[in-house]
Structure formats: structure tokens, C-alpha cells
Amino acid sequence: MTLGNDHKRLLDNLKTGVVLLDNNLRLLYLNMAAEALIDISDRKAHQLFIGDIFINAAEDIGEMQTAIQNHSSFTKRKAELKLVHGKSLFVDYTISPFDVDGEKRALLELSSLEHSYRISREESLHSAHTTTKELLRGLAHEIKNPLGGIRGAAQLLAQEIGEGEYTDYTNIIIEEADRLHNLVDRLVGSRKPLDIKDCNIHEVLERVKTLIEAETSGNGIKFIQDYDPSIPSIRADTEQLIQAMLNIARNAMQSLASPNVDHDFGEILLRTRIVRNVTISSKFHRQSARIEIIDNGPGIPEDIIDTIFFPMISGRAEGTGLGLAITNGIINQHKGLMEVDSKPGETSFSVVLPLSK
Hints:
The chain is of the alpha+beta class. Helices cover about 40% and strands about 30% of the residues.
């Protein structure tokens, strides 16, 4: 059985992983979603036994063989399949036998539970972020009005009393009113439209690295770069993207300065990769760029990790809780996705940005 180009294009547009097997469970074809899920190309997987892909899976392989022999479909929910390189897949799978030209074949459909959970979590975060943003905008309006009155009254008072012993007090009122005004603006986020141009993500990361190294001079933090040179230019606002990545890297730097760090040498890893078949805000993207900033700090406390991108949430007593909220807003403006994964000794912030066609 040979798949035509039309059939391949059709299967490659599916978000579900599809694997074509012969009656001996050897791989004949993988669509693009299956390639991304199993982390192997169709060419390399051709004619491999499925047991060479999924290790220690005797029970699952036995169920598949029984399904082919009995010519009946079999579905398993919440299956854990381990790949040869150590990664585990949590999937629902269905194997459906069929005959073509007198030969037995089977179609294996793989639906990633992690993918479904991520989409659900992303939609929940996006909804909460939108609600919080609208709430903050209303609150900002209510705060700015009296602030403007306080500042104006302080200026009039300063003019009335002239230079004297009370000038310092009126200056403090004006300065603090300005500071609160700026704080509110940062909470709400910029409404300035993005200046979209071709942007080299590695130049952005190198700029961030230079800035952080200047701030951490002599503090024993090592940067490691692991870049994928095949990533093309991204359509983005370079300055905004620098600010977003700088906020994440600065967060990593500050975590490495925590007294809870149990090692003497902090590391920040900057990694880029191309990822395929990604859904962001219900929109499917064939190719995207993933940028990871990983540190070996103490990790994010479990009680705040689900709300870490919300304003005023911080794991540090001296933190304002604005940096990651602002970053998340910038990434959302770029139609991207931001995720975090943390455990003691490793925190990874991932940013996924769609690549142009």
C-alpha cells in the first residue's frame, strides 16, 4: 500500500498522530503530528518494529497484535508509552485494523493528553488574564483621577508657599504621585501598537545575555547558549521582545541570588528550537520557534506557580510581581504562548512564537 501525495497532505493536516502499521506492527508511515509526538521522522521510522519505538510496552503491543488478529478496533485511555530516549508519552490511542489488496494493515491514532491539558490550561490562563487586565484598567482609571488631583494640589501649594522649609514636603507628594502613576501604567501595560519587523531571536537573546552579564558581574553566573541556527527571522517588535526576555532572564538571575540555592555556581541556559504542529489560542501553527530560559535555582513555590503570570504575584519578598505579568502581555500581543515548569534545582520558562509561512 502506497500513500499518494493527496492522502499525505490530508493526514499531515491532522492534529492527531497517525501511524500506519503492517500486520507485524512495522511502521509504514507517520504523519507530521506523529513525527512530533514520537520525535522521529517518517523516513527514519520506516519498517521499524513498534517495539523499537515504545520500550517496555509488551502489554500494549500484545493488545495491538490481538486487535489485528481479531480484526477489531481497540482503544486505550490514559496510556503511558515510553520512548527509547527516555521520554514518556501520555496518550489515548486507538488501533483500527483493515485490509487492503488482501494484506492486513492497521491505523494507530495517538492523541496526546499533555497537548489537550496544555490547550485547556492555556485557555484558562488567557481567560483569567483578560479578566484581570480589564479589572486593572478600571482600577487604574479610579486611581489616576485622585492622583492627578493630589499632584495638582501639591503643585499649587508649592507655588503659594514658594521656596522654604515646606518645599521638600510638596516635592515628595509630587514625586510619589508620579511614582504611583507610573506603577499603575506598568500594571495595565502599554497600549502602544507593536512595531513589527523581521527579528533575529538569537540577536535578542545575545542582547539580553550582555545586559544580564553587566548586572551580575562577579556574581558567578554562567550563561550557556544552545541555539538552533535553522530558525528563520521572526516577525516581532524587537525592543518589546528584548524586554520580555530580559524580564525572564532577570527573574532567573534573582532566583540564583536566593539564599535557598544549594550550590555555588548558578547557570542560565538559553535554548532555541523549532517546534511543529502547535496550537496557540485555538489557532494551529505548522511551525513555531520555542525559546527556553532555564536556571538551576531553587524553583518556584508550588502555591504560586499556577498564578505566576498574574500581576502582583511574586516569590520574592522584595518583588513587585510585575515583570512576568508584563512579559506575558508582550508575548500575548505577539500571538505567542508562555509556559513555566519548575522543580527544585531547575526552572524553565518557555516562549513559543509562531513562524511566518
